[in-house]
Amino acid sequence: MAAYSMTQNFRSSHFHMQSHRAPQPLLFERCCGLPITGELVLRGFSGNRCTGFGLKACVQSPKDNYSNGSFGLNAKGPTLVRRPQLLNSVDIDLVDGIDRRFSSSVHEEPKWGNPLTFHEFSSRDKLVVAVDIDEVLGNFVSALNKFVADHYSSHHSVSEYHVYEFFRIWKCSRDEANIRVHEFFKTPYFKTGIWPIPGAQSTLLKLSRFCHLSVVTSRQNAIKEHTLEWIEKHYPGLFQEIHFGNHFALDGESRSKAEICKSLGASVLIDDNPRYAIECAEAGIRVLLFDYENSYPWCKTECGNLPPLVTKVHNWEEVEKHLASCVLP
User: Fold this and answer.
1) Exposed end of the chain (fewer CB within 10 Å): N or C?
2) What is the mean pLDDT of residues 66-91?
3) Which is the catalytic residue, given 64, 91, 93, 134?
4) How far apart are the C-alpha atoms of 190 and 182, rounded to whole Å?
């Protein structure tokens, strides 16, 4: 990285980057917030540190380091890791020992919420929960349908997606479908057109009191920056880590959700895809298969006989009840 990029004062309260390579300046320069001084933890670099998510290119051991900019044979995929945050009046307002945290409703900016009633669990007692993004946190398919209709004159509704394989629904080749999706990533349809699933924000705020929440998504590495920005906009401060599986990518290695969840020590995965649900259940991970208001056809036609560790849920209230039953008497 150029000396200017490393020495300028980055104003950010949400992001921290740790990598085995020099970081891209774009991720830093897009950040905004309160400056937090300190040493940036980078191999061979120094600068200002900011708390929040960190982008970490993980390897299994020092021997598996990067070679010519690519992952080693045993390398793990990119992970966004939330750093321990300095507490200040912007993040937490302590009132008689009770914290007032952000809450938000659909299509609204995050705002201060009322004190929560859940007992505050210590970090080691919290249930480790992995959460998918598309169709669980945000309405990806609805936004994608608008793009496809406007750019390819191909009109579809969510009710047509009997499988979560776009080329089958669009009647095109798999390669053509991948190209369309990656074109979608470059547009406002993707960047600003995906809205939170109703109930997700308020429920996750409550769950954060007794759950260690991390995002595990099959999304591609190519859209990690926009994904991170979207998470911080709609779900500020709720997730400790973000892991990208890099599935259906035009390049790069991919990781299975079962592998990622096991590395996290996740006890539960919340996901809408039956294939991922079965894969994780076979690895001993409990899954809440999310079929919002019974409106996801791919959840019905692929389910069949679900493993005992997979439970269907239809909204975020049901998610809350199931997770609370795991930890509360």
Assistant:
1) C
2) 39
3) 134
4) 10
The answer to whether residues 101 and 220 belong to one domain is yes
Residue with tokens 């917030």: 33
In one-letter notation, the amino acid at residue 97 is G
> pLDDT by residue (tens digit) across 152-199?
999 999 999 999 999 999 999 999 999 999 999 999 999 999 999 999
Total domains in the fold of the chain: 3
More confident residue, 69 or 42: 69
pLDDT above 50 for 272: yes
Task: Identify whether the C-beta of residue 174 lies closer than 8 Å to the C-beta of residue 249.
Answer: no
* Full domain range(s) for residue 241: 93-138+197-327
User: Using an 8 Å Cβ cutoff, are 238 and 213 in contact?
Assistant: yes
**Which pTM does this prediction carry?**
0.67
Active site residue 134: yes
Does one domain contain both 251 and 111? yes
Are 105 and 112 within 8 A, CB to CB?
Answer: no
* Length reported for the chain: 329
Residue 327's pLDDT band (cuts 50, 70, 90): confident
* Residues 247 and 107 reside in one and the same domain: yes
Residue 265 has pLDDT above 70, yes or no: yes
Using a 10 angstrom Cβ sphere, with 0-12 exposed, 13-18 middle and 19 or more buried, the burial of residue 264 is: buried
> Known catalytic residue: 132?
yes
Catalytic one of 64, 93, 99, 132: 132
Number of helices (H), then strands (E), belonging to the chain: the values are 12, 12
Does the pLDDT of residue 273 top 50, yes or no?
A: yes
